[in-house]
Amino acid sequence: MLDARSAFAPSLPGTCQVCAAWPSQPVCEACIQRFAPARARCLACAAVLPDEQLVCGACHTRPDAPAVQRCVAAVDYAYPWDGLIARFKFRSEPGWAQPFAQQLLSAPHTTELLQTQPLVVPIPLTATRLGERGYNQAWELVKALHALWRRRTPTLPFETLATALVRLGETPDQHSLGREARLRNLRGAFAAHPSHAHRLPGRHVLLVDDVTTTGATLHTAAQALLQAGADRVSALVFARTPPNR
Ligand SMILES: [Zn+2]
Ligand SMILES: [Zn+2]
Q: Which bound ligand lies closest to the C-alpha atom of 22?
């Protein structure tokens, strides 16, 4: 039987998984230009901005100080990225981490965040989910980013930590919930790992995840990091759900 993991090898020449151009990277340059054009995004939540503001209206009027100070996203969670992310997460194709990390590195402001030499940590999965999937896609993204950055910017290395956070228990499915309901749903969902909490005080921590929808997961995880003494928290996500979805 063909193993899905070995069937997908993004380092080898193949066809574009979107338009079938050959030979190509997993997503060809033309498809990246077409489906992931560089767009101005809110510095705080990565929502696409209609004009030349720095932050979106929602972030501008938010009364509380956000736990995540800066958020960068590479693409909108829409065609073709939604389907490719589903393959990355649900069809045992962790190799997508490499092309996704490449796109994250090209997104405006990613370099600026990584140049501060943050401690880069993934949003963790629950133990049950990790057992089913066999890998945490967010950690795969962190590792791919680290490898690309080390090659590109060897003089400014950043540290990574797979288990800075632990996910406490199962949280009910969030798909149909709005931001407030998601925040309630996630209350207490994350904690700093007791064995690694000593690495957090005073650090700029950069959270990495594959997708953000309302930002509730990033916010809750960032609160746990700040409580453990992190100086500030930023986030890098591959895809952000457009506000109207
Ligand atoms: Zn293509
Ligand atoms: Zn915003």
A: 1
